[in-house]
Amino acid sequence: MPDRSEPSLDRMVGLAAGHSRSLSRRGFLRGASLSALALSSPSLLAACGTEGASVDQAACKSTDLSAREKVINFSNWIGYVDPVNAKDTSTLEKFKQQTGITVEYNNGDVNDNEAFFAKVSPQLQACKSTGRDVFVLTDWMAARMIDLGWLQKLDHSNMPNVKANIIDFLRAPAWDPKREYSVPWQSGMTGICYNAELTDPVTSFEQLLTRPDLKGKVELLTEMRDTMLFMLLMNGSNPEDFTDEEFSEAIALLQKYVDNGQVRRFTGNNYVDDMKSGDIVACEAWSGDVINLLGGGKYKWLPPEEGFALWTDNMLVPNKAEHKTNVEKLMNFYYDPVNAAKLSAWNYYFCPVSGAQQEIARFDKSATNSDFIFLDDETLDSGFSFMTLDAKQEQRYQRQFNEVQSG
Amino acid sequence: MTHPASVQSTGETPPGTGTTTPQRARRGWLLLVPGMLWLALFFLFPTVQLFFTSLYDPAGSYISGYQMTWEFRNYLDAVVDTWNLFARSFAYAGIATALCLILGYPLAYAIAFKAGRWKNVMLVLVIAPFFTSFLLRTLSWAAILSDQGPVTQFLQTIAILPDDGRLLATPVAVIAGLTYNFLPFMTLPLYASLDKVDYRLIEAAGDLYSSPVTGFRNVTFPLSLPGVVSGTLLTFIPASGDYINAELLGTPKQYMIGNRIQAAFITEKDYPLAASLSIILMAIVLVMVIFYVRRAGTEKLV
């Protein structure tokens, strides 16, 4: 159905918004008659249901204009790249000087994996351009997009640094064993952040959710996987392999702490604001944020006693992005240990590039030994990730989680 | 919900111009075409789409796609799961609307009758909040009501609020946010209505020995009823579907139906559920509005 309906829909929207490039009289008439058809028999459009979201990669060809157009449109989370307007030190500026490629950096265009997915899915589902050449998403979302056929295959011959310098831990994830579609940007940990001036150390999720002095002064993350991972751990379940029943029990546990008012609310990156205002004194938090957004100091981050979540955010090139080669040069650039060191010394996330530690030692002694940037093997092994979910599981779990959130 | 009303009223315009020539009448219809097209494209068409989506088989997913199986059960499931959120939304929106009326009426009255040369200044002040973004204004409320903020501290000092009490992240904050954000939608129609009232009628009530209270009850208020009705509708309808205030000023315990719909669409991608919730919300609001307008009997007054 969408094959037939969507072009006419587009035309209608294009017409109404005046976006249509060449609005000839005939085009208008055709558009008008199509929209009249669509309106008089809407059943044509929606009454038959929708097709799936996956795209046939062979049919969805992308062109690469990198040779002519020296630009990259880059969408990322906030707090992830060193200040773009610091002309002397900015890594993106250095990239421009080296390659002549200008990066249009959309800071915070990605704020939540699912919300970003919702934002780009209409285009990617229909094999259309999203206007972005590269975006950064977490492992499980990257895996989903690979399954849907939404991403372009990368050419490693344009980025020798990646194969040469990526740390072994990230070299071959199960969902992209050859790193054909994804290259890690940074990794990080989910744990607990607390304000040392306002509360005693909070060392476990148990404490975070049961200590009476923290009642109503605690926040959890809206990302279902992040929060439920800890709930499962608290119940003694394995977040990498659990049953529906175990998940329901973990939901019940979460419900208890929402009902008794221990948890104030659920947030994304904006827990940072509530920590700063002092409205909350402890929360579930992403490791690097505590340094690069909160500034460290009295704000402490630690891995909870129950365990911590380890995740990676990956650079992905969507279908129809027109500057893939440019992006590959960017990937190559950030896998040069010198540049990787600069980046991690600023954002304090776990660096996926080997050799960066020696580079950091040259200019930033405190960052060299940071537990946030360089994780030893023991720590890496002890980090948890969340079980891979199929679409229906995902929907069911997400629904259970949202129902807790909506009281 | 204002759309069907405007369709209706625009539809009634041509008969009112019955004395004109057929050609002029046709021109009148022609002028309506852009508006009608706009409504058809951006209201009627999406609503029909939404209605069909609400009947998809819930066994589908965004990956496999959704089958149309005319699943009317979706509505039952949606109501059973979320009736409490509907109740909460209408309660919050109702309280906010009442507060808006209490705050907005004296304000509109003052602007219409007492402001003199300050009238325009006061009107601009009512509209001024619209110059900044809705989100930004709501976020500033979060700062004002913050646990460490002046309001909370003051209320704690005078012992209205217990020492460990808070304003932010409570129903108080959400309702206050709704009231603030929708107050102009109440004040402006009230002002428009009161401004049209012939002040001599109110004076006449005084001349006929009615007390100010009786005069207000029997003369001023009935004459301003069209403003009261449109003001309450313009406040209540968007307030009951709002999710920003609950999201930024509340907690999960204050979430409204808008939050649930947003979550169903964005994170669960359960389109049938989200669509049936939206249709139910529209239907309930529509029924309430029809009932209310009938009861208020504004047809005679407008």
Please state the overall shape of chain A, judged from the principal axes of the Cα atoms. globular
Q: Write the CATH fold name of the largest domain in chain A.
A: D-Maltodextrin-Binding Protein, domain 2
Per CATH, the architecture of the largest domain in chain A is 3-Layer(aba) Sandwich
| Unreliable stretches covering 5 or more consecutive residues of chain A | 1-44
- What's the number of extended β-strand segments of chain A? 9
Structural Rg of chain B: 23 Å
User: How many structural domains in the coordinates of chain B?
Assistant: 1
The CATH class label of chain B is Mainly Alpha
Structural class of chain A: alpha/beta
Notable traits:
heterodimer, A: 407 residues, alpha/beta, D-Maltodextrin-Binding Protein, domain 2, 3 domains, 19 helices, 9 strands, 44% helix, 14% strand, globular, disordered N terminus, B: 302 residues, mainly alpha, MetI-like fold, 13 helices, 0% strand
How would you explain this protein's 3D organization?
- The complex is a heterodimer of chains A (407) and B (302).
- With 407 residues, chain A is an alpha/beta fold.
- Chain A folds into three domains: 45 residues, no CATH class; 139 residues, D-Maltodextrin-Binding Protein, domain 2 (3-Layer(aba) Sandwich), CATH 3.40.190; 142 residues, 3-Layer(aba) Sandwich (D-Maltodextrin-Binding Protein, domain 2).
- In chain A, 44% of the residues lie in helices and 14% in strands.
- In chain A, strands 1, 2, 3, 4, 5, 6, 7, 8 and 9 form a nine-stranded mixed beta sheet that branches.
- Chain A starts with a helix and ends with a helix.
- The relative contact order of chain A is 0.15.
- Chain B has 302 residues and is mainly alpha-helical.
- Chain B has one domain: MetI-like fold.
- Chain B contains 13 helices and no strands.
- Chain B is globular, with a radius of gyration of 23 Å.
- The two termini of chain B are 19 Å apart.
- At the A-B interface, helix 1, helix 2, helix 3, helix 5 and strand 6 of A face helix 2, helix 3 and helix 12 of B.
